[in-house]
Amino acid sequence: MKALQDIDKLNIKKDLTEILDKYSSKTLTEQETQNLKDREKNVKHYQKLLQEFKESSSSSEQHFESSIIKFMTEALYSYEDELHQIMLIYLQLIASYITDFFNTEGLKDKKKHIKNMKKLFIDSTDNIIKTYEHQLLKTLKSLESTQARS
């Protein structure tokens, strides 16, 4: 068996600092900056999907199911960034509640419940998208001010 090499305890800080300096940077690369800007475009895509869902018919259980499935499908097969991951988790959680709702027997005035569920879903989803957008814009603004000072 190969023996482990002894660690030079006197030079470890110096060696580690050299390695970290070699592979780290104080600013983002152009590609990283562009990726952040692309995420802003992705936010607009999610907002468009949500607006389409908001404008879709919910006059019946079938219309609501159809429009929410369309939203979920398009959202889940969209861009793969942090917002996509957040939406994936959120939609997985909310889907079980929606399914339970439609499987509830003896539910009276389904149209009223569908209307309330749609509003709750829109408000919650919109809140997620806006929170992500706010943080993204804050990051981009901070990045721009840092680059301006350089």
Q: Can you characterise this structure?
A:
This protein has helices at 12-23, 30-55, 61-76, 82-102, 110-149. By secondary structure, the chain is an all-alpha fold. It has a domain at 61-140. The protein is elongated.
Concise account of the structure shown:
By secondary structure, the chain is an all-alpha fold. It has helices spanning 12-23, 30-55, 61-76, 82-102, 110-149. The mean pLDDT is 87.
How far the N terminus sits from the C terminus, by CA atoms, comes to 52 Å
Tell me, briefly, the overall form: elongated
Model regions low in confidence, pLDDT < 50 over at least 5 residues: none
What's the order of the H and E elements?
A: HHHHH
Average of per-residue pLDDT values:
87
Q: What portion of residues belong to β-strands?
A: under 5%
Q: Estimate the helix proportion, in percent.
A: over 70%
User: Total strand count, please?
Assistant: 0
Gyration radius from CA atoms, angstroms: 24 Å
* Main beta-sheet strand count, sense and barrel state: none
How large is the count of helical segments? 5
Give the structural class: mainly alpha
Q: Secondary-structure map with pairings?
A:
Layout lengths: L11 H12 L6 H26 L5 H16 L5 H21 L7 H40 L1
Helix pairs in contact: 2-3, 2-5, 3-4, 4-5
